[in-house]
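Sequence only, no structure available. Ideas?
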Amino acid sequence: MPKYIMTGSNSHNLTKESEGYYLPNKETFTELRSPRSPLSTQSLSLSTLTLDSDSLDLAINRVADTSIEQLYHNVCEMQSSDQSPSRLSFLSYGEESRIDSELRFLAVGDYDAVKEENEANNTQKTSLRSKSFSCKPPNGKQSVKNLRAFSSMKKERSPHFIGKIEGHGKSKGYLGPYLLKQAKDMMSSGDSNSQKALELAIRAMKSFEVSLTHKPNLDFVMCLHIVASLYCRIGMYNEAIPILERSINIPIVDLGKNHALAKFSGCMQLGDTYAMLGQIENSIRFYKTGLEIQRQVLGEKDPRLRETCRYLAEAHVQAVQYDEAEQLCLMALDIHKENGSLASLEEASDRRLLGLICDSKGDYESALEHYTLARMVMASNGLNSDVASIDCNIGDAYLYLARYDEAIFAYQNALNKFNSSKEENQSKVASIFVSLGDLYNKIGKFGDAKSFLENALRIYAKPVPGSLSEEIASGLVDISTIFESMDEQEKALVT
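Reply:
I predicted one. Tokens follow.
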């Protein structure tokens, strides 16, 4: 019977081999590296491996088939092999090796046996080992049955494990922010697949819902805003409204500025959504709520309050509520004055809006005052296109006041600015031609009026890309009306 070396270094053992001792798998020891179990990422010491076992060969070679069938086959071979002392591991004191237990567990799913092996006393372990090595390998039918049971167990475990990640344990607190970040990245990168981003955002929303506590979660509020935004991006405005309504009920303004900002953002986004559906009254209601939140948190003279005042004023203009719009514009101008931002571009923009409101109310003198102040600021900043647009507004106001010479001068200034500009302004040029045609018609210069109207018709007949069909239709209606007033019925009908 061959002798085995139980102690001493590898170099000492190698010298003993020449004296008659037998050392199987000596190349294993000359490599001076610990074999690694294919089932674990941790290296095992040589003392925990069986010298003459197939499991050692499997670990050293690392080329064996690790499928369930091959693992089971290895177990059967080990159980049917010679029960010599070589079957026992070094320093195991009669216990079977760890890798043998892992192989048997994965092959036949004998979890209870492994658990008993870890918890029972030495006598019970010895009897279990003796029974294991003395029994015959199972027949083919039994092994197939066990393999099928193990395969089904693996298939069932995967979705169950994923479900735990999404709805149970510590992972639920991290999945929501992770999915939300993916959705935000897709939105910010300009990805056209809005539906995919929406699916990710909805999954994030559901994950947040699972982990909700009694405390308001601002990350969840932001998630709701993103879901609603993606719904609006694909035109599903009605689906976005209940989500936004839920989002504005979560933050508590008294808890700080972050909560106030979250509530404000939800109100403004909800107002935008209602505006897209044409429900201007509902839109104005939520804009007002957002303005009140800002006023409560930031104060009456904060520059950010001015932006919301203008936003709400534009909504009132769309609803033909000019008095309310005028009050908001005056409030915005007061904020400019308090913050020393007079003669700024923002102040000029607000003045122009106020001029349009006064113009719509028929207060043309006040409109001209605001137009003139806004024009001066725009001109000093070299914004020729904006200056030309304001000149058109000034010309219209002079036309309503029957100050025709001043109106013609303003219109000519606008034409010169548009023609010198590098931007494509053909539709605006055509509208100026229509206004000049109307002006010359009113002062009885019908020839000049027809000339300007025909110039406008030529532009409308060949619209440049990007021209709005609404502007073209409105211009054609105005031309037809002017021709009809000149008793040019045929041209009016053709137009």
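The chain has three domains: 33-160, 165-405, 424-495.
Hope that gets you unstuck.
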